[in-house]
Write a structure and sequence with these properties.
Blueprint: E1 3-5, E2 11-13, E3 18-21, E4 28-31, E5 36-39, E6 45-50, E7 53-59, E8 69-76, E9 79-81, E10 84-88
Length: 89
């Protein structure tokens, strides 16, 4: 998921909600600036840099029930956006 800053400086993901397959996919966010990801009810998020990303965050697998919707926050540039994650079969 690529994060950019909109014209008012709010961090915006290119997918909202992010869809992730239960027990078989991880999510990677990528940006050219520092950011944090906070997922309500989920804590397996690691930060670093990766191929093609100056700054990145990556989750582990999601083992919640299919149909679970997570709210998460992207904070960057002193602003926070609250998109979502949907767990799919």
């Amino acid at each position: 998921v690529t994060i950019t800053l909109n014209s008012s400086g709010l961090p915006v993901p290119d997918h909202d909600p992010v869809e992730v397959k239960k027990d078989s996919q991880k999510i990677r966010w990528c940006a050219d600036f520092q950011f944090t990801i906070t997922i309500v009810g989920y804590s397996d998020v690691n930060y670093g840099s990766s191929s093609g990303c100056t700054f990145s965050a990556k989750t582990g697998f999601f083992n919640a029930a299919v149909g679970t919707h997570y709210k998460y926050s992207i904070t960057a540039n002193g602003k926070t956006n609250d998109p979502g994650i949907d767990v799919k079969p």
